[in-house]
Design a protein that fits this description.
With 425 residues, the protein is an alpha+beta fold. It has four domains: 94 residues, Rossmann fold, CATH 3.40.50; 56 residues, ATP-grasp fold, A domain (Dna Ligase, domain 1, 2-Layer Sandwich), CATH 3.30.1490.20; 128 residues, D-amino Acid Aminotransferase, Chain A, domain 1, CATH 3.30.470.20; 96 residues, Alpha-Beta Complex (Glycinamide Ribonucleotide Synthetase, Chain A, domain 4). The chain has 15 helices and 23 strands. Strands 12, 15, 18, 19, 22 and 23 form a six-stranded antiparallel sheet that branches. Helix 6 packs across helix 7 and helix 8 packs antiparallel against helix 9. The longest helix is centred in the middle third of the chain and has 21 residues. The chain is globular, with a radius of gyration of 20 Å. The chain starts with a strand and ends with a helix.
Length: 425
């Protein structure tokens, strides 16, 4: 099997690493890929613009690609799956209409409201005055979200009225996130513990993955600004088997049915961000793709051949695949550029990558790196996802931090308390 993988971050490195383990997969073309992916024997990084989707489909046809896998939400929202499906090219990922579940938070919240999928109370606001009036009516704490895609940074959890009103000015007035903030969703501040539940689906059958937990705040003790994710672990004990079953029955299945009813059949990976309190589950958000850095801890625990699962999702035959998981746990620690998610400098050489990768049950996923003249250098906010597996969370965490200690680049920043909630339990 020949696979085309779209994307070049830590999630895509994890996908490439897992797909390369499949006995069916002979070759993986990756657009654009990264230096970590380039080191995988089966992978070839391709310099191809993702702005011309027809040319990407041409490449798939010319290179006899059997399956295309899409990592980033941006490509899905602009319709890469539509182009491939129109040309009868198997692709793992939802159409543009289905990807709107992430592309528009207003669409997502209205869908949940219409189909009684549990979530926080909310209001979609089209202008600054309406948004501020609603905040003054509801008070703080409250959550302000840019409607469109903002690379995981368009959510402000405001603990005071001043913060909330300033967030509206930032998003809608100053257009901090560009057109993504043309309208906002203002919603209830939900208390509890979060978990991420990803699922494989072909539009009919839905199979949940192992639950994981992301650490969004930049600093230890869940302090500092929201980021794209500073680390993850799986499994997340907060989502017990009983609660996972509840999530499938009250969230995942109704959402897939709702999307079909709306004429937007959904296939690929559906990501549900859940808030859990007193054994009650509410949806924080939906994403139309694998999470980053959740993928880095979920896929190492997958026993079944990933390529077989993805092809089944693309061809509506998921019910024929039995999906199994390995025992144990995985922990990912994100090493970021100093200053992230604010301003940061890139281009710093990274040392110790080979030493870290040589450690037992450890793999370093590249998220924001590039090949410099003499060394791999930093090229983004989140630079590396240092991931380790073990028999339990503690062993996986200890291994991950042992690997982190081997790696160095100027102004490297990472949290020291990844998986603290699981260990506290």
């Amino acid at each position: 099997m020949q696979v085309l993988l779209i994307g070049g971050g830590g999630r895509e490195h994890a996908l490439a690493w897992k797909l390369a383990q499949s006995p069916q997969v002979a070759k993986i073309f990756v657009v654009p890929g990264n230096p970590g992916i380039a080191q995988i024997e089966e992978c070839e990084c391709i310099d191809l613009s993702l702005s011309d989707l027809e040319k990407v489909a041409d490449f798939a046809e010319e290179n006899s690609v059997d399956l295309t896998v899409v990592g980033p939400e941006a490509s899905l929202v602009v319709g890469i799956a539509d182009v491939f499906k129109r040309r009868c090219l198997p692709i793992f990922g939802p159409t543009a209409a289905a990807a709107e579940i992430e592309g528009s938070k207003a669409f997502s919240k209205n869908l949940m409201d219409k189909y009684d999928i549990p979530t926080a109370f909310f209001k979609v606001c089209e202008d600054v005055e309406t948004a501020k009036a609603y905040i003054e009516e509801k008070g703080a704490p409250i959550v302000i979200k840019a409607d469109g895609l903002a690379a995981g940074k368009g959510v402000i959890v405001a603990m005071t009225m001043e913060e909330a009103l300033a967030a509206v000015d930032d998003i809608m007035g100053d257009q901090k996130f560009g057109v993504a903030g043309a309208r906002v969703v203002i919603e209830e501040f939900m208390e509890g513990e979060e978990a991420s539940l990803l699922a494989f689906t072909d539009g009919k059958t839905i199979v949940p993955m192992i639950a994981s937990q992301d650490h969004k705040r930049a600093n230890d003790n869940d302090e500092g600004p929201n980021t794209g994710g500073m680390g993850t672990y799986a499994p997340a004990p907060v989502l017990t088997e009983a609660l996972k079953l509840q999530a499938v029955e009250t969230v995942l299945k109704p959402t897939i049915e709702a999307m079909a009813a709306e004429g937007r059949p959904y296939s690929g990976c559906l990501y549900a961000g859940l808030m859990i309190k007193d054994n009650v589950i509410k949806v924080v958000e939906f994403n139309c793709r694998f999470g980053d850095p959740e993928t880095q801890v979920v896929l190492p625990l997958l026993k079944t051949d990933l390529a077989s699962i993805m092809l089944a999702c693309a061809t509506e035959t998921l019910e024929d695949v039995e999906i199994e998981w390995n025992d144990g746990a995985a922990v990912c620690v994100v090493m970021a550029s100093g200053g992230y998610p604010g301003e940061f400098t890139t281009g710093y050489p990274i040392t110790g990558l080979d030493d870290a990768n040589a450690l037992e049950n450890t793999v370093v996923f590249h998220a924001g790196t590039k090949q410099g003249e003499d060394a791999i250098v930093t090229a983004g906010g989140r630079v590396l996802g240092v991931t380790a597996f073990g028999s339990d969370i503690k062993q996986a965490k200890d291994r991950a931090y042992k690997a982190v200690e081997k790696i160095d680049f100027k102004d490297a920043h990472y949290r020291n308390d990844i998986a603290w909630r699981a260990l506290k339990r």
